[in-house]
Amino acid sequence: MATDPNLTDPNFWPEYLEQHRDPTNRALHVAGTLSAVALLGVGLARRDWRALVAAPLVGYGAAWLGHFLVERNRPKTLDAPLASLAADVRMAGLAVTGQLAREYRRYGIPDRPGLVIRRHPPSAPALERVAPDETRGS
Fold first, then answer.
1. Any idea where the domains of the chain sit in the sequence?
2. Helix, coil or strand: residue 2
3. Residue 87 banded pLDDT, cuts 50, 70, 90
4. What CA–CA distance (Å, rounded) separates 132 from 18?
5. What are the start and end residues of every segment in region (Disordered) (predicted)?
6. The pTM is what?
7. Quick count: other Cβ atoms within 10 Å of Cβ 59?
8. What share of the chain is helix, strand, coil (3-state, %, to 5)?
9. Calpha distance 21→23 (Å, rounded)
């Protein structure tokens, strides 16, 4: 069985985060992932094939709605299915534990559309001070 080369690509996770900047898209992903895990658990526990079949439909259905209707981009699942699945689980775990925003900051990626993070060189101060207009020379 061939493995997904994106599983070991260090750029995959930041690219994945970049494609999931909209909070609604992330919420759909997390809800879909957690629902799929629950359906897998129920399906295995009860030996119910319907829950097992529903798991990927619910999980990917919610995620793809987020991509096509909210974020308006192409799901990474189409290019890298295993790495995308692993990233979905990772994102859900970080979201549930309240650490997802920190992950976005770690990579310098705005965690919602329309935000721009201005990067400074490491030697520059993190914040710039700007004098009010009335104190500037004319």
1. 14-107
2. coil
3. very high
4. 35
5. 118-138
6. 0.76
7. 23
8. 65, 0, 35
9. 6
